[in-house]
Amino acid sequence: MARLRPDVPLADMVPEQFAGWRLDRSVIPIRPPPNLQAELDRVYQQQLGRTYVDARGYRMMLSIAYGADQSRGLAMHRPEVCYPAQGFEVSRVWSGQLDLGPQQITVSRAKASLGGRHEPLTYWMLVGDVVVGPGTQARWAVLRSTLRGWVPDGLLVRLSSIDRDAERAFATQDSFARALVQAVEPTFRQRLVGWVSP
Which distant-in-sequence residues (6+ apart) come within 8 Å of 45 by Cβ? Predict the structure, then answer.
């Protein structure tokens, strides 16, 4: 599937400013430990990490990772696995629905903490052009593609914010996601959420 995709860098797909959010250039993304970064580089061909800020000073961290080969052994790394590898405690992970207007997608939510840092997060994954939920859904999507003769690619989109108020964080993440999808050029929306806006 990856060979059929336009060769467009993730940084060019995602605008630096939209709907009251702007890229916060004062924030330098924290790189994972070298061993974890090496594993991420093996699985993903593109990774984008940005922090946005709104007029209130609320910051939203956006991470997008693209892997051209989701065959066995090269599956996407879920945040509930990667966060503990960096010392975080993930207390809870659950599934939910994100309303994007004419479309709803399945997302996973989690609460991560490290010392006094509380970081609620929302993420979703695509295998090929299909948003997959947690558990075995991703593996079934890979199997279905393989049976059709395709090696599927994959995309993981994660939003997180440092906020002790988890409900506020999740509501803000949902609002940010809706604004992001509307700001992305229509030709790129299917890569982010598995659908093309009419």
Answer: 2, 66, 67, 68
pTM: 0.84
Write out the two tokens for 163: 């906020």
Say what the alpha-carbon torsion angle 6, 60, 16, 187 is, to the nearest 10 degrees.
Answer: 30
Map out the domains of the chain as residue ranges: 2-190
Give me the tens of pLDDT residue by residue for the chain, a chain 198 residues long. Answer: 556 666 778 999 999 999 999 999 998 766 767 777 777 777 777 889 999 999 999 999 999 998 877 655 445 667 887 888 888 999 888 999 999 877 899 999 999 999 999 999 999 988 877 888 766 555 555 556 565 656 678 889 999 999 999 999 999 999 999 999 999 998 888 888 986 444
Could you say which of 1.10.3470, 1.10.10, 3.30.70, 3.40.1000 is the CATH number of the domain covering 2-190? Answer: 3.40.1000
**What is the β-pairing status of strands 46-53 and 17-18?**
unpaired
State the pairing for strand pair 89-99/104-114: antiparallel
- Provide the pairing of β-strand 21-23 with 46-53: antiparallel
> What letters, b where the CB count within 10 A reaches 16 and e where it falls short, cover 1-19?
beeeeeeeebeebbeeebe
From first CA to last CA, the distance across the chain in angstroms is: 23
